[in-house]
Amino acid sequence: MIGTGFGEKSGPRVTSSLFRASAGTHSVRHTFSTYGGNSGVPLSVLQSLLGHTSMETTMIYTHPLLEAERKVVEQIASILLPFAPTMASVRCGGKQ
To answer: What are phi and psi of 63, to 5 degrees?
Structure first.
C-alpha cells in the first residue's frame, strides 16, 4: 500500500519494482522533479505539483542533468562570446 504520510494507507498494493525499497516513491519524486525541471517546467509549477511550501525544497528535488547543464553553458557562451565555436559545431566539423 502507498502511505499518505499521515499514518493512513491508500490505494491498491503496488507490486511494481518501481515502488520497491530500492526505488521507492521518494526516488520517483526526485525523478519527476528532475525531468520536469530539465524539460522546462517552471520551478513554481513543480513546487505546486510536489506540494512543497518553499522553493528551496523543490530545488533540492530538482537535479540538473549533464546535457541540460551543457546546453545552458553553451547558451550563455553564445551570448558572451557570439563567435566562439560550440561543442556541437566542433563535433560536426564546423557544421551545425
So the answer is: -110, 125
Our CA angle for 86, 89, 93, nearest 5°, is: 145
Give one DSSP letter per residue of 47-85, joined into a string: HHHHT-SSHHHHHHH----HHHHHHHHHHHHHHH-TTSP
Domain ranges of the chain: 1-63, 65-96
Question: Considering only CA atoms, which of 66, 54, 59, 18 is closest in space to residue 37?
Answer: 59
pLDDT, one tens digit per residue, over 37-75 is: 888 899 999 999 999 999 999 999 988 888 888 888 888
